[in-house]
Automatic annotation (TrEMBL):
Residues 159-279 form the MHD1 domain. PANTHER family: CALCIUM-DEPENDENT SECRETION ACTIVATOR. The lineage of its organism: Eukaryota, Metazoa, Ecdysozoa, Arthropoda, Crustacea. GO terms for biological process: dense core granule exocytosis; synaptic vesicle exocytosis. It comes from the Eukaryota. This is Calcium-dependent secretion activator-like. It is found in: Endomembrane system; Synapse. GO terms for molecular function: lipid binding. The keyword Transport applies. One of its GO terms (cellular component) is endomembrane system. Keywords: Lipid-binding, Membrane, Synapse, Transport.
Amino acid sequence: GNRPDGVGTVLAEERDRFMSIKERLRVLLEHQITNFMYCFPFGRPEGALQSALVLLDSVLMKDIVTPVSHEEVRAMIKKSLENAALLNYTRLSGETKVEEDLGPDSGVSASRKLEDLIHLAELCVDLLQQNEEHHAEAFAWFSDLLVEHAEIFWSLFAVDMDQVLSEQPPDTWDAFPLFQILNDYLRQDDNLKNGRFHQHLRETFAPMVVRYVDLMESSIGQSIHKGFERERWENKGNGCATSEDLFWKLDALQSFIHDLHWPEIDFAKHLEQRLKLMA
């Protein structure tokens, strides 16, 4: 019963039943936070995820008068969001069959693997944008953990990305759209810009960019030396075939460098300088 001083007494059986219900509720909340994308799709029902986080405080209390420490709540949410990153990525990669593609006996061509990876990258960007739009407000007190959730998510993607890129033939440029999709998303996200995955992306593609520019520079040089030697220098109005080819290559290279939106200032300036020297 209850006493005027606020101290209550319960039977051992009642306490055991209460602790059992409390543990079941803790497990349910942990499941909902780990599966927040699916338990609260598009942030619906409105305010439900935030309520679950508030309820978690009460469930983790040792008793009705001793509040739970912020560190304990934070540790549980951290664990749940880490598991959520693995869960969400596993589901997406399964939908795009990337995991099947990377199997030892898949028999899938390198070009098909790259196509599936690019599609997966688009889905990953869409999912994390949904996180930001519909769930970030609920995790406002743990925003750094949501950022870490995204970094872990991208680290899982990076493993598959590195494997697919390692299987591509040399001097193929079909992977650049992958860089553009990822970089255009990351450079506009203040939390992920220049983060761990963004840095890994730059380090992975920088040698490919340099190699592409080198080959284009060599091709332009050959156009100048070999093309003009064959010209008969007759007046043809808008220019000779060699000059048209030269201008087309310069324009293509300029568009390529511009569309990269390279996030590192020094390397971006280096590319612009090389383009100016060629021009």
